[in-house]
Protein: Magnesium transporter MgtE
Amino acid sequence: MDENQEALELQFDQLQAALAADDMKQFRELFLELHIFEQGQFYQSLTDEQRRQMYAYLSPKEIADMFDVIEEDNIHMTDYLSEMRPGYAADMLAEMYTDNAVDLLNTLDKKQTAKYLSIMPHESAREIRELLHYEDDTAGAIMTTEYVSIVANQTVRSAMYVLKNEATAAETIYYIYVVDQANHLVGVISLRDLIINDDDVMIADILSERVISVHVGDDQEDVAQTFRDYDFLALPVTDYDEHLLGIVTVDDIIDVIDDEAASDYSGLAGVNVEEVSENPMRSAMSRLPWLITLLFLGMATASLISHYEELVSEASILAVFISLITGTAGNAGTQSLAVAVRRLAMTEDKERSFLGTVMGEILTGLITGAITGLTIFAIVSIWKGNPTLGFVIGIAMMFAITVANLAGSLIPMLMDKLGFDPAVASGPFITTLSDLTSVLIYFNIASLFMQQFIGT
Amino acid sequence: MDENQEALELQFDQLQAALAADDMKQFRELFLELHIFEQGQFYQSLTDEQRRQMYAYLSPKEIADMFDVIEEDNIHMTDYLSEMRPGYAADMLAEMYTDNAVDLLNTLDKKQTAKYLSIMPHESAREIRELLHYEDDTAGAIMTTEYVSIVANQTVRSAMYVLKNEATAAETIYYIYVVDQANHLVGVISLRDLIINDDDVMIADILSERVISVHVGDDQEDVAQTFRDYDFLALPVTDYDEHLLGIVTVDDIIDVIDDEAASDYSGLAGVNVEEVSENPMRSAMSRLPWLITLLFLGMATASLISHYEELVSEASILAVFISLITGTAGNAGTQSLAVAVRRLAMTEDKERSFLGTVMGEILTGLITGAITGLTIFAIVSIWKGNPTLGFVIGIAMMFAITVANLAGSLIPMLMDKLGFDPAVASGPFITTLSDLTSVLIYFNIASLFMQQFIGT
Structure:
């Protein structure tokens, strides 16, 4: 792709020159040759003055095609909109695929949205308004209304004719949805099926009645799972009365999968990895809320140790192993958290009983704890020549790991039961919580054997 | 989807009954009505005896269609294969899409693979052998050879005719690739373009010469990024001489994105979340390697504290804050690790200079450290009525966080530079390492102010 890249840069330079020379014809010719994504790359490399020049050269439809590809997660989109004359921007929004226009309008304040809707073509405004109603992260929020639907009582030839007319406007023409007079979804036929059948075959004879669809209120994660299972390129969305409302296409599902992965990853790390700024001050501000909250939880651990200060002053050897025990238990808790969150995300595995999972996790904790505990028992006994100390550290390690394992799996499972996203139970939260329980376990066990350590 | 589910379960029961009654006609009728994914669900719910009965009822091609959908990450696939007569299994593999057959064969040992290849149709074996050569995680390893290609010198009508003939075998017919006599990729045309143009138009006049392709050795993550950028449903794969070798389809890209997300997530947690077993012993065995390795790193921290044991015995108050400082620095390190891994995954951001990123992360660390340090200074000064102690804890906290932040971003960046996957720098590794540096910083600062604490 390197020669491609060079050719592309050359063309970008020529486009810049055409803008500078105010040569609209040359600019349009070069620009419309580019792939839409590349048009977007060029557009985003410009100054606002150059972009204003582009609005004069290109139609709202041409800009809309480009915006359909660059809109995802681009923080400058609202700036771009405000550069355009309101009428131009409204036309542009009307020409975009409805789902993308809605995403874009959702980033504006309500007043601005209302302004654009009031000056755009009535039909487009109506479609956009309908989609604006749907809750975030549902099938309704990611669907588009540009699909092709036909009735069953016609031949392949006439269906192909319909398709030919709607091909330019539709977001996908590779599935054609079959509806009855009341717009109930009754079947689906792929373009592949249309192609391999003869022109005179009736649609009713070749359509698939077993159509997989999602409901408009379904969670976008479940919609993504249906895409994964069936390897579809698009899925129809219906209301609870099986009326066809729109379609979700696979490119939007890739965004959903990316977003969900980033949010799980962010949860585990206790930081929003998508709000990455190059400004250290802003980065710090996005990380501090978690850090300070956890600092207070950490203070609970500190004040717990404070209770045992006398014990520590008499047997300072105990201080040596605090971080080893809290650290190892924290590591085990993070592992069990990640496994639990992942398991909850895999819908198929949800059927396993709550109690079964918890018991399994306790057992896993006991096994890892016992082996880790035995290892540290051997190390400490030899290193410090003190098997009693080794025994205390080993036993404390075993219980601390078991409890951390249990917390790591129980907390996300409880959050899931209560209807929260289990992924927000962050790794740092689990490790900080497990510091507290580990210290509690450690000093209680050490107290039992206290006489042994005095003066060591 | 609930009524769907009920209808499906009813049909599964009827299928079971047909198997029990040995009614092949009834079974085939009901089975072939199902969507392929549902066929797979039914198949996987059977006993091995019932599955053997199915092989007698269905052709290798019919089983192959189902295997194309269920093959991903299914650990029982090799068992299924070994249940079939070798000739049947070989025919089945030949009928699968080449990329899926290759995935499946890659899970077998070489002897078995060779056996199946030796008894399958020659042409299929040749195609599979070619794909088996490609390295894991490259475009070559995920591409398939079932694409449609045509030459430019023909009309839309004749291209549609070619398409009609190849539609059943091809994995996608929605892009048609245009090649010259030597099979060099020279253009692409979408089925949408064929549909909207008249029958007599020449392909040469409407094809897009600016075809985006990937090279066979490209990393699958880069291929996924190209899909994200351009919203394609398929991409052509070429060798370094621009010969067309195959295509990658979007369903495989969804698997790639899922796999990469799971591997990033696993890395952050220090456990392979994909190898989830319900057997606690197995779970424990998959988690122990990291835990024990980190235990030894933790021992370094313990022996470091051991050096300061005398200091602790004289000023036991110091022990109270060990876990607070190591814990908070660990949390900060995990945040910075996650941000760094994420930034490295976004290719666009790679251009930012190494030094710039490191300086930014140090600054972020200093800011978060200063604010956290100030907070803890205030709390400790009031709680313990000892501003000097508060100062020591606060300063130690600030430096510990700064160092943890730096380690969290530097380590994945160095791994990336050295050609490793930065995501394997796990969260638990960073926290355990930061325990060591935090303790070092803490006790060194405390030593400087030692006289103040003796006897407190």
User: Anything to note?
Assistant: Chain A has three domains: 6-138, 149-258, 280-452.
